[in-house]
Backbone:
């Protein structure tokens, strides 16, 4: 049947791309063994993928054969296709584009105050459309756009709740599609996912090969969340809501949290908490740039607040690490720019390990900084294309 044939072809094509992504410089002759496809099939599909801008063949100097033909190692082509990503932050909008290897092509971050959802999503998609047009002018074809959201995105693609911006039960994808259509990009496929999950994908999809496939990304900002990658996929849980570590309880009976519980991690280590420690209660939340400025100026109140939040982060990370046993823990989101906070978390993690020598993952800061959510949302587009049979990350697909 035509549909089956076309799905089979997509599976075979992406098996080749995945193989090249995993081992850059792979030769055609090795791809048949790596993918289980016939040599002739590999040959046809590789030529197509080169033609379309997925792969490029690089002649390898010094490996000239007797007949004079150089074998060509295959790598992902970084010149013709692009991936778009966007993040709707609590107080910012971010858009980024990258090539198939995750090299940033453009990025934009603007401060933003949300009013209503259609307007915010429309403004975000206007930035995406602008990026799309720029890529097209540079001769690149975008393969799709991913959008990271600051809340729980359930497996039916609905934003269940984004407490920091007051949105709830919102079918986001139709609004995004409509906004893109109005901006003249109606043909751009769009997917949605939670921002911490996007952060995890930024590290997983675009990390150095071979990919570390047991990774936890903890996103720290106005809220706290985690994205978990195990066995080559995002772990989304029963309803798509795993990783809500901001609502794991670190202090039973502690301060009330907007989620309805008490003593959640978010009541101890969010941007609001750090800001309130610095200014006292009743003041507007300090912008992260302002916190950084004060930290660099040696303001002891910021240092103390960052250290206290880091202490709690260490406890949160410890509990995550012994539960999941990741190889790498990546700390991202705006608050990860506070070096004192991350250092305090590392120290707290070591202290909590006591005499135990197990569970000692690498802990590092996100390699994409403030673009991690947007780059990871772009990575989500690639991850979905590379895995045409993968129906499990439904949280991201929506209606
Ligand atoms: Zn909570």
Residues:
């Amino acid at each position: 049947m035509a549909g089956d044939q076309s799905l089979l072809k997509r599976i075979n094509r992406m098996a080749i791309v995945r193989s090249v992504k995993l081992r850059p410089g792979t030769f055609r002759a090795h791809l048949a063994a790596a993918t289980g496809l016939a040599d002739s099939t590999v040959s046809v599909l590789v030529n197509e993928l080169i033609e379309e801008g997925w792969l490029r063949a690089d002649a390898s100097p010094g490996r000239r054969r007797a007949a004079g033909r150089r074998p060509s190692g295959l790598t992902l082509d970084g010149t013709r296709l692009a991936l778009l990503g966007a993040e709707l932050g609590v107080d910012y909008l971010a858009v980024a584009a990258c090539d198939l290897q995750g090299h940033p092509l453009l990025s934009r971050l603007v401060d933003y105050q949300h009013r209503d959802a259609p307007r915010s999503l429309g403004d975000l998609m206007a930035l995406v459309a602008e990026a799309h047009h720029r890529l097209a002018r540079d001769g690149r074809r975008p393969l799709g756009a991913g959008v990271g959201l600051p809340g729980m995105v359930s497996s039916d693609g609905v934003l269940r709740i984004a407490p920091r911006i007051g949105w709830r039960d919102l079918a986001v994808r139709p609004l995004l599609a409509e906004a893109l259509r109005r901006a003249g990009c109606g043909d751009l496929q769009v997917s949605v996912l939670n921002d911490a999950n996007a952060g995890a994908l930024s590290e997983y999809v675009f990390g150095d090969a071979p990919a570390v496939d047991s990774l936890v990304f903890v996103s720290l900002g106005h809220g706290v969340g985690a994205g978990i990658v195990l066995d080559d996929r995002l772990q989304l849980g029963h309803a798509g809501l795993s990783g809500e570590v901001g609502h794991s309880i670190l202090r039973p009976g502690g301060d009330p949290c907007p989620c309805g519980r008490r003593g959640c991690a978010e009541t101890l280590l969010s941007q609001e908490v750090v800001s309130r420690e610095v200014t006292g209660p009743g003041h507007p939340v300090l912008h992260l740039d302002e916190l950084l400025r004060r930290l660099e100026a040696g303001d002891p109140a910021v240092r103390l607040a960052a250290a206290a939040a880091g202490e709690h982060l260490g406890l949160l990370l410890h509990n995550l690490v012994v539960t999941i046993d990741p190889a790498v823990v990546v700390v991202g989101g705006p608050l990860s720019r506070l070096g004192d906070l991350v250092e305090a978390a590392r120290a707290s993690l070591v202290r909590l390990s006591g005499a135990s020598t197990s569970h000692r993952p690498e802990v590092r800061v996100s390699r994409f900084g403030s673009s991690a959510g947007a780059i990871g949302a772009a990575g989500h587009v690639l991850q979905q294309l590379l895995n045409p049979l993968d129906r499990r990350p439904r949280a991201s697909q929506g209606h």
The mean pLDDT is 91.
